[in-house]
Amino acid sequence: MRTRQFLKPRTVSREVDEIVDALPKHNIGSQGYDPWGLNPDTAKITFTAVRWLYEHYFRVRAHGLENVAGSGRLLIVGNHSGQLPMDGVMVSFAVANKAEDARLPRSMIERWFPSVPFLGNWMNSVGGVIGDPKNCAKMLEREEAIVVFPEGIRGSGKPYRLRYQLQRFGHGFMHLAMEHGTPIVPVGVVGCEETMPSLVDIKPLARMLGMPYFPLAPLVPLPARVFLNFGRPMHFANDARNEQDVEWRVEEVKDAIRDLIDTGIAQRKSIF
Amino acid sequence: MSDGKRKQPARRGASAAASSETVRRKTPARRRTEAEAQARPAGLGIGSETRGKVLVTGAAGALAQHVIALLREHYDVVGVEFRGVQAEYPDTVDYVVDFNTRPFEDVFREHGFMAIIHLGRIRFTQSTRNRRYSANVVGTARLLRLALKYGVEQVIALSTYHVYGADARNPSLIDEEYPMRAANLMREVVDAVELENLFNIHLYKHPELNISILRPCNIAGPGINNEISRMLSQPVAPCLFGFSPLMQFIHVEDMARAVVRSFERNHPGVYNVAPDDYVAYQDALQQAGCRRLFLPSVPPALARRAVRALGRYAPPDYLIDFFKYAVIIDGSLFARTFDFEPEHSLTELLSHYRGLK
């Protein structure tokens, strides 16, 4: 609290202050926390750095943001890449930085993050939530928007030679969407693959450190241009007869994301 | 406590087996037969001024004192305490008796209880694990047997959110169906889980007992002496470096209202009791006027050693994960079912502790 009070007036610009203040905060309690640990003051301090990354480092171009509704439950489903969860940060900031109907979508984080000192608390306080179906269900019940990468570490940890090739999608997001009557907004992320291209995953080292993967990659993200394309909301009725039905619907979403990735690649004139 | 209200000397039990066991009581109780007690609970007859007789266990505790104060308006309340031997007990205690001893049944014989509000539990920091198990689990099993035998119509049991266990993988807003993972995560808390299992078995096996199990978040406020309340009361409180888990607090007066409301409205089941408001542990310490003493958090063995070195100025080492990972429970089912909303804000609660400094 004292660290926040010290940092906030020294780091947060008026623009970032206004961006965060304009976000809906219906789940925030009297002490400035929501049930998942989001804290607007910490978010403001973090967004100051994120905004610089978004505007000046990755020079993000976001299209189709009008497809992200300003209220109501929502799943934003995209392709995962880039070793670090930069894509989630950029997608969340793009939606929070919208001129109209801005909101802060919550990003799913790996389950081991909360056990890391400082990192776990910090990720929670800027909107990260561990990827647990119960968490998602509760958030949707409370009309939150959630960014989901159904590829998980299969997507973020893949080597550069597999760039823009969608890996296997988990079905959990589709079950959630159907059970909770939640629209899915597909998003194609282009550019994050190039921010941290990995030549190989050093599995023994990853196992030794208890990490999901250990890429042979640049130590810091490269300043690749990032293009985000948000598609039209997709609605799925809760009438799947079996898991095969669910898989077909997941394939529909994957097709939509593939089209959006192709659009982003076409928009991109240069990688850096 | 005035002289007139001091406890009577220990009364000898009638049977030889019970001769060495004692029930200490403040007022002589009218002796009733078992049949009388079952046939017509005291205080329910025509012309009675109260709606019935209620047994409240753990009557010396701060929560029980609030509950009894609320109940006394409409009910005859008998307070029973089994925890330890202390020089003086508050007025809310009518009997001091171990649940595992035979004279405890005399209390049931002498009063025809319509309901039991079971608040008496030896906390994690009190006594050894075996003693806690014996008092909390075996003692409660006996309490439930007696409740069945003497036709008690309703049981309210106080559990704790600790049964969910603290773990980095816990989702937020844990609801009542979530597994009680504490049994797997921390052996020292197993008595709390066993106690719940006991009530759950009776809940379904004996629906006539109308059991409601309440799992509150951290209870705090004047008179409360649990682990978190002790931390907030201290001028310097320990916290783990790099960890400030989100917590929930409920004021003792609000919790007493929740207990009484669940008793009066009688919807048997299992309920989390927590407000829809949250604060990070370190923020809570600062608002309560505590200075933070940072302890090493990694490796976990070092953190446990540091906590043990602080003794009573820190939570017990087996509860350390509750000061590391958030365990946020969803109290919405209780709020909806019993139309309950806490009256005391979090700011007010933390101000109380600041005022103590």
Helices and strands, with pairings:
The complex is a heterodimer of chains A (272) and B (357).
Chain A: H1 2-11, H2 14-21, H3 40-57, E1 61-63, E2 74-78, H4 86-96, E3 106-109, H5 119-125, E4 128-130, H6 133-141, E5 145-148, H7 153-156, H8 172-179, E6 184-190, H9 192-195, H10 203-209, E7 227-230, H11 243-267
Helix pairs in contact in A: 1-3, 2-3, 3-4
Chain B: E1 11-12, E2 22-25, H1 34-39, E3 53-57, H2 62-71, E4 76-81, E5 95-96, H3 103-110, E6 115-118, H4 129-149, E7 154-158, H5 182-185, H6 190-205, E8 211-216, E9 218-220, H7 227-233, E10 236-240, E11 246-247, E12 249-251, H8 252-265, E13 269-273, E14 279-280, H9 281-287, E15 291-295, H10 300-310, H11 332-338, H12 346-356
Helix pairs in contact in B: 2-8, 4-6
Descriptive overview:
By secondary structure, chain A is of the alpha/beta class. Helix content of chain A is 41%, strand content 11%. Chain A has a single domain, classed as 3-Layer(aba) Sandwich (Glycerol-3-phosphate (1)-acyltransferase), CATH 3.40.1130. In chain A, β3, α5 (119-125) and β4 form a beta-alpha-beta unit. The longest helix of chain A is centred in the last third of the chain and has 25 residues, at 243-267. Helices cover 34% and strands 17% of the residues of chain B. Chain B has twelve helices and 15 strands. Chain B has helices at residues 34-39, 62-71, 103-110, 129-149, 182-185, 190-205, 227-233, 252-265, 281-287, 300-310, 332-338, 346-356; strands at 11-12, 22-25, 53-57, 76-81, 95-96, 115-118, 154-158, 211-216, 218-220, 236-240, 246-247, 249-251, 269-273, 279-280, 291-295. In chain B, the strands form four sheets. Chain B has a nine-stranded mixed sheet with strand order 1-2-5-4-3-6-7-8-13, sandwiched between helices. In chain B, strands 9-12 form a two-stranded parallel ribbon. In chain B, α2 crosses α8 and α4 (129-149) packs parallel to α6. The radius of gyration of chain B is 21 Å and the shape is globular. In chain B, 51% of the residues are buried. The model of chain B is unreliable at 1-22, 26-34 and 36-47 (pLDDT under 50). The interface between A and B is medium-sized, with 27 and 33 residues. Chain A: Keywords: Acyltransferase, Transferase. Chain A: One of its GO terms (cellular component) is membrane. Chain A: It comes from Salinisphaera orenii MK-B5.
